[in-house]
Amino acid sequence: MAPYESDESTTAEEADDLRAGRRKAARYVVPVAVVGVAAATIGLVPALADSGDPDLPKISAQQLIDKIAKSDVQQMSGTVKVSTDLGLPNLGGLENSLASGATRSGDGSSADPSTKLTELATGTHTLRVASDGPDRQKVSLLENAAEYSLIHNGKDVWGYDSGSNEVYHSTDAGHAQGRPPKDVPATPKDFTQEALKSVDATTSVTVQGTARVAGRDAYRLVVKPKQSGSTVGQITVAVDARTGMPLKFTLTPSSGGSAVIDAGFTQVSFARPSASTFDFTPPKGAKVTEDTKAGHGRAGHDLKGTGKVPGSGKGLAEGTGGTKILGKGWNSIATFDTGGKGVPSGSAAGGRFGGFLDSLGDKVSGTFGSGTVFKTRLINALITDDGKVYVGAVDKAALVKAADAAQ
Known about the structure:
Blueprint lengths: L4 E2 L5 H15 L22 E2 L10 H10 L4 E10 L9 H11 L8 H4 L6 E10 L3 E7 L4 E7 L2 E6 L4 E5 L2 H4 L11 H9 L6 E11 L2 E10 L6 E9 L5 E8 L7 E9 L17 E5 L4 H6 L22 E3 L6 E5 L8 H4 L1 H10 E6 L2 E7 L4 E5 L3 E5 L3 H10 L2
Parallel strand pairs: 8-14
Antiparallel strand pairs: 1-9, 2-9, 3-4, 3-13, 4-5, 5-6, 6-7, 7-8, 9-10, 10-11, 11-12, 12-13, 15-16, 16-20, 17-18, 18-19, 19-20
């Protein structure tokens, strides 16, 4: 680490400036990720940082956030390592069975992003990304013996699964107007944009030294909740010293241990990618599925609302009728009423699915009655026996307290 640290913590006044900075940052999102995924379950394997911390000019947290906001990288390509450790039990192939079952029943193509990219929910993956302005992006998921690519070129969006030789194609109105599908976090910058939306008076923001990532000099921005009860320990972002683009994003849980999300470039170039990078013609013999549903290209790819980096509480149950946000800052809890019963027990649910639910759940009780807390290392949810749901990046005690207070 470079021998300095600035901005011990963020005051309420400074928080206003930081919020202004992250609002600017939101206008400069590089639409690299056209992948539709549940972002709360996506992460990147630790990008191997180069040895030796560079000696860079001192910079404050506010200056670094402003640098991110002003970053306007339009052309780039690179390789990102992807991994997630939510602490979920092994599903024993259940998720693959459900996905393949949906495909066999005619509900979709294996090349549809909403089907193919569910595998990014767990494990280690490598992504190859490229961008040339707002109208051209490509993300490729590299596998052992196959490759899946999602390409946005003008009004067209193509998905291709080389393993099954299937193609997905969409040309909805949004694409025809030159807008890409709404981007979701899949690169360090995408995750950083979401994290900065949570910066307020409940947040500590500091600059803690420097690093070398993907051969480039970077500053380390550290974001921490000031409140207790959050499952988020801290977020560390390596920010490119020259361009201001985040090169590495790491979210560690308050419980300690390995990172829940670790997003980092292992190789990056800011040269303009070749135009041929975004060309696609369905291979001979490939099964092509045309998506003719109006607006599906936008809605089908935009799962961002269900997986924002926790902090503000927004997006945890977005789109659900009657959703309310309890608390503030990193301890925000989204709550809504399903209007039905709580989650069935393992015996009632039956089979492997019931056992899976039991492995995640802890029975709890309080003034609210009783229910089950389903836990990961990041997002926890309390489902009461009368069908009310409380969910957030908070610990079990915070969920029970919120349910009791709602009575």
